[in-house]
Write a structure and sequence with these properties.
Pfam families (chain B): Oxidored_q3 (PF00499)
Membrane topology (chain B): Multi-pass membrane protein
Number of strands of chain A: 0
CATH class of chain A: Mainly Alpha
Order of helices and strands of chain B: HHHHHHH
Region (Disordered) (chain B): 177-224
Strand content of chain A: under 5%
CATH superfamily of the domain at 1-151 in chain B: NADH-ubiquinone/plastoquinone oxidoreductase chain 6, subunit NuoJ
Strand content of chain B: under 5%
Structural class of chain A: mainly alpha
Subcellular location (chain B): Cell membrane
Helix content of chain A: 55-70%
Catalytic activity (chain B): a quinone + NADH + 5 H(+)(in) = a quinol + NAD(+) + 4 H(+)(out)
Largest sheet of chain B: none
CATH class of the domain at 1-151 in chain B: Mainly Alpha
Oligomer: heterodimer
Largest interface: A-B, 107 and 118 residues
Shape of chain A: elongated
Radius of gyration of chain B: 26 Å
CATH architecture of chain A: Orthogonal Bundle
Chain lengths: 147, 224
């Protein structure tokens, strides 16, 4: 097999994941795109391990480690997203601009201006923001059940 | 390269190459749909197709054990975790118009530039290299197990510690606000310091909610 096939496929998958990380608004979709990027790296590792005929098979061992670390990352990431959602009522990454510095010296904490900038299409309000306060107790119980 | 590699060429692909190409096209298409669809649950389901296609690619590269680990870990657990995350954050079921942020075109430009540069470099670098897939499979479960527990056993054990730390961290992150909210309900007004802390936090929450929801509520009533 030509080595360019898996290498080019890995490059294209990585760039698709890069687009997803930069363009998506929901934090869970950003996590999905990160998974795509990690999988592109895994494909590269496996392909070059087979190509080099490594005696220690370091590519495949590193692929297994990457898969395990990706699983840990997705668990921690989802726990953080759920905690943010419970506290702020949203999981859109561009609404979370409390630490942003504005050019006029003010902090980015005034939510009205940011919300006016990031308003979705006006005909249909986002349903996850339409329900104001997430009920914390059943949500956390489900989170424990998934953990 | 050995003598058989002399007969390789772009214009005479082998069967493995054709299979790799077809599965790769399916994988890439599923990945593109994953990052562009407006329906959040469909994105997770297309991610299953992309990750399953990658497992088939691993099989074609004779990495058998990695392929089954990919199916077990990614398709089996990571996607299920993502679906649970979508469910717990009350993701909309239908089309959500705000799935993409405003910097989509900048992101598209960055991704296309990165893809063009990387494809050019990779194709130019590995134009004359072929993977020799003949002979015994290099990634069979036998070989991988022996290598993993003979040469890589120390990183393997360190990885188990990392997984344990991630498990404890996820539990702590999920339980923290639960305890605080329980304290808010049970001991409201008991202790001055605690109630001050919870009041500040709830004030924070209402301010954050106020900013994002007041225009939408007004707009929803306007449309009615």
């Amino acid at each position: 097999m030509h080595l360019a096939y898996p290498a080019v496929l890995a490059v294209l998958l990585f760039c698709v994941g890069l687009y997803g990380v930069l363009a998506r608004r929901n934090a869970i979709l950003v996590l999905m795109s990160v998974e795509l990027m990690l999988n592109a790296v895994n494909l590269n590792l496996v392909a070059f391990d087979v190509w080099l005929r490594d005696r220690l098979h370091s590519g495949q061992a590193l692929t297994l480690f990457t898969i395990a670390i990706a699983a840990a990352e997705i668990g921690i990431g989802l726990a953080i997203v759920l905690a943010v959602y419970r506290n702020r009522g949203t999981s859109a990454v561009d609404d979370l601009r409390d630490t942003a510095e504005r050019p006029d010296g003010g902090d980015g904490d005034d939510g009205t201006e940011g919300a006016a900038l990031d308003e979705p299409a006006p005909d249909e309000p986002a349903p996850n923001q339409a329900s104001p306060k997430p009920q914390s107790s059943p949500t956390s119980q489900k989170a424990e059940a998934t953990a | 390269m050995n003598l058989a590699a002399q007969h390789h060429g772009f214009l005479s692909p082998t069967g493995v190459e054709i299979a790799f190409l077809l599965v790769g096209l399916v994988t890439l298409g599923a990945a593109v749909v994953t990052v562009t669809t407006k329906q959040l649950v469909h994105a997770a389901l297309w991610l299953v197709v992309a990750l399953g296609g990658l497992a088939v690619e691993y099989l074609l590269l004779s990495a058998e054990f990695i392929a089954w680990v990919q199916v077990l870990i990614y398709v089996g657990s990571v996607v299920v975790l993502l679906l649970f995350g979508l469910m717990l954050t009350r993701a909309p079921i239908g089309r959500s118009p705000d799935a993409d942020s405003g910097n989509r075109w900048v992101a598209l430009g960055v991704a296309l530039a990165a893809a063009a540069a990387l494809v050019w470099v990779v194709v130019d670098a590995f134009r004359t290299q072929w993977i020799d897939l003949d002979g015994p499979a290099q990634g069979s479960t036998d070989v991988t197990g022996a290598i993993l527990f003979r040469h890589w056993v120390l990183p393997f054990e360190a990885l188990s510690v990392l997984l344990l730390a991630a498990l404890v961290g996820a539990i702590v992150l999920s339980r923290k606000s639960d305890r605080e909210s329980g304290r808010t309900e049970q001991e409201s007004g008991k202790s001055d310091r605690e109630s001050g802390k919870t009041d500040r936090k709830s004030g924070d929450r209402t301010r954050a909610n106020h900013g994002t929801q007041a225009p939408q509520q007004a707009r929803k009533e306007g449309t009615r």
